[in-house]
Amino acid sequence: MNLPSSDANPRIDGDAAVSDLDSLYRAHASTVARWASRLAGPDTDVEDLVHEIFLVAGRRLPEFRGDAKVTTWLYRITERVALDGRRKDRFRRWFARARAVEIEHSFSPSQPTPLDALERRQAAESVYRILDRLPDKYRTVLILFELEELSGEEIAALTGLKPATVWVQLHRARTRFLGEMKRALGREP
């Protein structure tokens, strides 16, 4: 999928030139998919979300001047699209739970049993139910730090926050998450 040519020649992280959506997609689709799946939660159709993210990126590619890293630019688009999707899906989740599972491996003894898979899915759903109770700013830094295993500096670069702000939000996110978890387990009123 190529974009109409433009005079602007966007750059990826100051190294390689990218002037079309196809190159951008090939270079960053897997990273965007990982971010999208983590930010949106386990009930998200990641493939559809990534498609939507790159549609936005394609529309905005001529506007990208290269002042920031392309990964920062794509993260911001991913974050907005994922959070918008989460807001819309909150109502849909009451009626149907569907999780896209893309396991195409043949059966092997090292694969989890159906009971193990069910327990993991239920645990992930519980974690995301608790994450959904957090304000978006806390939820995002917690996911990026704990699940994506990014450093505070990397999170600051992606989100545009100051590193000190990232650490404060991470501390508050952990505190709220643990409080919500205790309430969910019935250990606190």
What strand line-up does the widest sheet have? 1-2
Arithmetic mean pLDDT: 77
* Element-level helix/strand string: EEHHHHHHH
Q: What is the CATH domain class of the largest domain?
A: Mainly Alpha
Instruction: Show unreliable segments.
Output: 1-17, 93-108
Count of the domains: 2
Please report which band the strand proportion falls in: under 5%, 5-15%, 15-25%, 25-35%, 35-45% or over 45%: under 5%
CATH fold-level name of the largest domain: Rna Polymerase Sigma Factor, Chain: A
Query: How large, in whole angstroms, is the Cα Rg?
Result: 19 Å
Short description, anyone?
With 189 residues, the chain is an all-alpha fold. Helices cover 63% and strands 2% of the residues.
What labels would you give this structure?
189 residues; mainly alpha; Rna Polymerase Sigma Factor, Chain: A; Arc Repressor Mutant, subunit A; 2 domains; two-stranded antiparallel ribbon; 7 helices; 2 strands; globular; disordered N terminus
Could you describe the 3D structure shown?
The chain is an all-alpha fold and 189 residues long. It folds into two domains: 1-90, Rna Polymerase Sigma Factor, Chain: A (Orthogonal Bundle), CATH 1.10.1740.10; 112-189, Orthogonal Bundle (Arc Repressor Mutant, subunit A), CATH 1.10.10.10. It has helices at residues 21-40, 46-60, 70-92, 114-132, 136-147, 152-159, 163-184; strands at 11-12, 16-17. Strands 1-2 form a two-stranded antiparallel ribbon. The chain is globular, with a radius of gyration of 19 Å. Mean pLDDT is 77; it is low at 1-17 and 93-108.
